[in-house]
Amino acid sequence: QVQLVESGGGLMQPGGSLKLSCAASGFIFSTYAMGWYRQAPGKQRELVAQITSGGSAHYADSVKGRFTISRDNAKNTVYLQMNRLKPEDTAVYYCNAKRVEIRRDYWGQGTQVTVSS
Question: pLDDT tens for residues 84-105?
Answer without folding.
Answer: 999 999 999 999 999 999 999 9
